[in-house]
Amino acid sequence: MLPMFSLYLLVVNILLFSWMGIDKRRARMHEWRISERRLWITAVIGGALGGWAGMQVFRHKTKHTAFVIGFPCLVAVHVLLILYFL
């Protein structure tokens, strides 16, 4: 069960990290964007660390207080939940 959960977390975090980069590129090119709702849902279901890393690497959503505070808080919640269930 643990390897499957680890794989899930890896995939979700890579996905959100990638979406942050894609959305930043699309924003610069004035193209269709990935919705904030989709970014948040992906963060809530386990991808917060990837989203937070994407914010730092791509300098994306760094002026949005909800993202700047929310993603690190979600990372903390996810870590606490993982520790609790282990």
TrEMBL record:
Keywords: Membrane, Transmembrane, Transmembrane helix. InterPro entries: DUF1294 (IPR010718). The chain crosses the membrane at residues 6-22, 38-58, 64-85. It comes from the Bacteria. The keyword Membrane applies. The keyword Transmembrane helix applies. This is Uncharacterized membrane protein YsdA, DUF1294 family. It comes from Terribacillus halophilus. The lineage of its organism: Bacteria, Bacillati, Bacillota, Bacilli, Bacillales.
